[in-house]
Amino acid sequence: MAWRLPLRRLRYYDLLLLSAVVVLCAFSLAALYGIATGFETPDFGNLRKQVLFIALGMLALVAVSTVNTQWLKQYAVAGYALSALLLVAVLVFGQTRSGTTGWFTLGPIGFQPVEVAKFALIILQARLLSARPSGGGLPWRLLAESGGITALYCGLTLLQPDFGSAMLLLVIWLGMVFFAGVTARQVLAMAAVVGVLGAGWWTLFSQEYQHARIITFLNPAADPYGRGYQVRQSIIAVGAGQLLGRGLGSGSQSQLKFIPASQTDFIFAVIAEELGLLGAGVVLAAYLVLLLRLAALARRAADDFAAALVHGIAVLLFVHIVINVGMNLGLLPVTGIPLPLLSYGGSYLVITLTLLGVAQSVAISSVKYRA
Question: For residue 261, is it left (φ>0), alpha (ψ between -120 and 50) or beta?
Fold first, then answer.
């Protein structure tokens, strides 16, 4: 039957990659369960939503994995244009949360267009960069074109204003052109352009709270009960977990609600406190497996477009992990960047699993498949 052909492709999944995904989703549910028990009357509403988000994301992963990546290449420009329209629409019709107008609300579920924009940007960049001539560096015209399509997304995201997501879009581009092959002169030119534009934006358009985040990062003790409160409580929670943790649902920092945004930005601190160094180590090991498998898939991809796709996915996940864990440990400024597959939330989780479905499609295409 016709439906059996796509299902037979599933036997070629990268099982290590899939196992890392399952482990991280399980830790997410465990952490949300522990947080929910901290209320006088346990509230498992977000836990139930996360189960639904994971289920939807897994369905998307399986569905996308059965699609040939060349189909994504064919519709890359249309996807980019649609995402740009969503970024414009959210500025007009979107909901404002924590000072950022970046959400569409569909009943009880919030949706961030910038998450779709990350996906669309990776696909279009992969299409552009895979078309480069073989041998030598990246042509200047192609470098400028890829930079321009990234700049449009960054500009629309900064208008929300969402500095963290805009920087992520920029880093996706930088990471992908690095893997595509750039010369030393091109690296210097990109650094100069990014530096000038960044300094101009910081001077003319940045907000007071963004300045405060940098000041707090440099000296958290300057305002321990204000701007520095989040980082201070997160560091205390991480240290309190010691080797084996205080037990699921027994962490004082998370149960007494000392950690703000414990279900999203600071869920790693909750895991470190309740499950200890051992639990946090398992999470980091799962991320390492995830990134190593993506690197392996990129090396054995069937074509340059598929390789560039996986490189973009790896860059996006790596930056999310480093920034989120870094801010939980007080090593980086707080930016509101979620932790992949762990932080509570719908749009980012579903898009992440969809991207990993693309990676599985590359895994399937990299072996000799016969119907």
Answer: left
Residue 244: predicted pLDDT = 84
Angle at 170 between CA 130 and CA 342, to 5 degrees: 100
pTM of the model: 0.88
Q: Decide if 172 contacts 118 (C-beta within 8 A).
A: yes
Say how far apart CA 1 and CA 262 lie, in whole Å. Answer: 48
Kindly state the average pLDDT of the residues 236-247.
82
152 Ramachandran zone, left/alpha/beta (phi>0; psi -120 to 50):
alpha
The domain spans of the chain are 4-365
Please state, in angstroms and rounded to a whole number, the distance separating the CA atoms of residues 125 and 127: 5
Tokens matching residue 281: 């180590």
d(CA 188, CA 79) in angstroms, rounded, equals 31
Q: What percent of the chain has pLDDT above 90?
A: 43
- Contact indicator for 355, 61 with CB cutoff of 8 Å: no
SS (H, E, C) the chain: CCCHHHHHHHHHCCHHHHHHHHHHHHHHHHHHHHHHCCCCCCCCHHHHHHHHHHHHHHHHHHHHHCCCHHHHHHCHHHHHHHHHHHHHHHHHHCEEECCEEEEEEECCEEECHHHHHHHHHHHHHHHHHHCCCCCCCCCHHHHHHHHHHHHHHHHHHHCCCCHHHHHHHHHHHHHHHHHHCCCHHHHHHHHHHHHHHHHHHHHHCCCHHHHHHHHHHHCHHHCCCCCCHHHHHHHHHHHHCCCCCCCCCCCHHHHCCCCCCCCCCCHHHHHHHHHHHHHHHHHHHHHHHHHHHHHHHHHCCCCHHHHHHHHHHHHHHHHHHHHHHHHHCCCCCCCCCCCCCCCCCCHHHHHHHHHHHHHHHHHHHCCCCCC
